[in-house]
Amino acid sequence: MLSNFKVVLVETSHPGNIGAVARAMKNMQMHELRLVTPKFFPHADATARASGADDVLKSACVYPDLPAAIADCRIVLGASARDRTISWPALTARQCAEKWGGNPHNSPNIGLVFGRENSGLKNHELDLCHYLLRIPCNKAYSSLNLAAAVQVVCYELFVASGQEQTTNVGDQGEVPIATTEQMEAFYLHLQQTMADIGFLHPERSKSIMRRLRRIFNRTQLDTKELDILRGILRFSQNHNTK
Amino acid sequence: MLSNFKVVLVETSHPGNIGAVARAMKNMQMHELRLVTPKFFPHADATARASGADDVLKSACVYPDLPAAIADCRIVLGASARDRTISWPALTARQCAEKWGGNPHNSPNIGLVFGRENSGLKNHELDLCHYLLRIPCNKAYSSLNLAAAVQVVCYELFVASGQEQTTNVGDQGEVPIATTEQMEAFYLHLQQTMADIGFLHPERSKSIMRRLRRIFNRTQLDTKELDILRGILRFSQNHNTK
């Protein structure tokens, strides 16, 4: 999946960043990393920061220049934090994901090019790109760490690819939400119990019940939780009659 | 902006990660970092990785436990990569951003809690959270680097806050796109020039012109570019008549 996206790092100085990029990619199911004349590679720092994504690191290819690295790409995006004076079409990471992330199988090879840690991409490198790729951020402090930038872009592509199962973690081992009927039975039981234990004055019952309803309706009880609460009510009723 | 969001790191082992988190936060205009019993802090590695976000680091507060760190928060989200067996409501980073990022001024204090690098948050810590906070990712390799996770969440909040100016970089120093009238004048000029230089057979002119139109219409020329092209046409016409 997302195998048509190639992450290209140009002249990375810190090998640790290369490792962190490999991890960020694998987290988002991307695997093809291309390196244009990295300062140090392979390197122990890269392996350490990859932590489990060494397969991405191992299969990374090194290229002598950017044209070689993107030769098989039909669309090339160059990450850029700076505003450029030349007119150049720009896409945000999300726009890029919406455009190409949704249907990776039908998409051509797409190169995502990230420049040097300190100075980004040079103009002659951006000339090879079809779009600038921008990550929305604080204008006063706009330089993301290299791996952080790759993480955001790959994350957007992953979300757009629709691969993630959207079931909430909370939905697992799933207990159904209580029905209105079950909730009404619960409220009746609650009201009866409060009368039984002498808490509820008949004339105050309405406003108190309204408040209690507000609490429990908001909570969206599931049937198991409801069973527990009604168990408590039963015990409380029995206790009172002893 | 986004000042109601507090990033809380629980028992971070590597001080470098604390620095990288500070940078990730500042990139997305977030400033309040809270640390629950970090292993080492302050530390040179934290300062190095913060690179320009030392203000976030300097103002970070250290707390003896999680309850103290989130005492003033009305909503608490606990980042979790693992699927939990207990039923717990979960929000993705984007859902969280849509819920609270859009109108930060009217939002209560919200704690974003991130656990230990290796083991995340313990169950008794998650008990203090109203929601699990999930980042969609590769199920087979789901552990993001701590700072990468913070980066994605803060990025989503920043995007939802609508603070970023949506002007394309390419729109700067803005030259208007050519009007249809200007384009038609250009096509006429182009056709005339091709006839003048002897390129265009009258009977082939129609299909050639259609192809050329397709190219230049797709390109969305601005008026300056159009001037340049027409200059070239003029020179080409004059050259031929010499």
TrEMBL record, chains A, B:
Residues 5-155 form the tRNA/rRNA methyltransferase SpoU type domain. Signal peptide: none annotated. It is found in: Cytoplasm. It is an enzyme of class 2 (transferase). The keyword DNA repair does not apply. It catalyses: uridine(32) in tRNA + S-adenosyl-L-methionine = 2'-O-methyluridine(32) in tRNA + S-adenosyl-L-homocysteine + H(+); cytidine(32) in tRNA + S-adenosyl-L-methionine = 2'-O-methylcytidine(32) in tRNA + S-adenosyl-L-homocysteine + H(+). InterPro entries: Alpha/beta_knot_MTases, RNA_MeTrfase_TrmJ/LasT, SpoU_MeTrfase, tRNA_m1G_MTases_N. One of its GO terms (biological process) is tRNA nucleoside ribose methylation. Keywords: Cytoplasm, Methyltransferase, S-adenosyl-L-methionine, Transferase, tRNA processing. Belongs to the class IV-like SAM-binding methyltransferase superfamily. RNA methyltransferase TrmH family. NCBIfam families: rRNA_methyl_1. PANTHER family: TRNA (CYTIDINE_URIDINE-2'-O-)-METHYLTRANSFERASE TRMJ, TRNA/RRNA METHYLTRANSFERASE. This is tRNA (cytidine/uridine-2'-O-)-methyltransferase TrmJ. It comes from Methylomonas paludis. The lineage of its organism: Bacteria, Pseudomonadati, Pseudomonadota, Gammaproteobacteria, Methylococcales. The gene is trmJ.
